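Researcher: Go.
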Amino acid sequence: MKAIKLLFALAVVGALAALAFVYSGIYPVGADVPHTKFVDWALETLRERSIAARLDDIAVPPLDDSQMLRAGGADYNEMCAACHLKPGQSESDMSIGLYPQPPNLTLAAEQHGDAAISAARRFWVIKHGIKASAMPAWGRTHDDARIWAMVVFLQKLPSLTPTQYQTLATRPGGESGHEPHGPETGAAESHGGATGLNTVAALTAPDVVDAFQSALKSGDVPAALGWLAADVLIYEGGGAERSREEYAAHHLQADMAFLKAAQVERLRRRSGDSGDTAWVTTESRIRGKSSSGREVDVRSTETALLRKTAEGWRIAHLHWSSQDHEPAGTSALSD
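Model: Structure:
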């Protein structure tokens, strides 16, 4: 009986001590101060055991559908990349500031400290989230099919190059365009995203033009340059840039800056190919502001010539031109 009373007394004292500790405010909760080793171990163990206990009832569907890969890529880019990064990134403002720091999912599982991650585990974490970790419960806004598509993309992500990532992460139907350079010249538009994608290497010439435009719109310099041939010839703003490096040093940044705020309406597109060459023309209406703050409302045309390479189609020539917008049928597009 004395032993029981002693244990009870110790339990009460322990509970009161814990309550006093909680109310004291001694323990630092700022995200810029790491947990103690014991707290870190306890929370990590609790998390992993809790997840493992809930995986048995998850039925994993077939995960070899290329359309799932594409759909998952677009969702990852919009919902996850700020924290879990893109190929070629090692950190971001979000990943640096969060604690616990989110894993870099562009690396293989063993490289960011996890054992082999099952598809079921990824599905559960995406759907239900993790308390006090900034990992949302996406299952509240996304159905299971959409979550499984993200699982498919995560399996592929560590093997993607920045260019391949940009292609798979572009949502079909996105918009892009170019800033007019000078009072009367230099604009173009193309919807972002490659449709009917099976593999990155299987992109058609219009798909490549779309991927290039989408990379410009998102500000992804490596991806944008990756779709250009090294000796690309670009006519823009009344001048010519005669290589990928020359474009990168001149109009690339201005084009990207303009795309972020421009409203683009595609009017029509035509394309064709013959052996190792292809052409894509896109006509559009673009509204926005130039770098000088001038209101822009133009009808533009883009002509792209592409060359077939071992890696697929690459843009060898671009010509952008525009004129002030007028109602359809009142004038023709011209330089």
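Model: Confidence is low (pLDDT under 50) at residues 173-199, 330-335.
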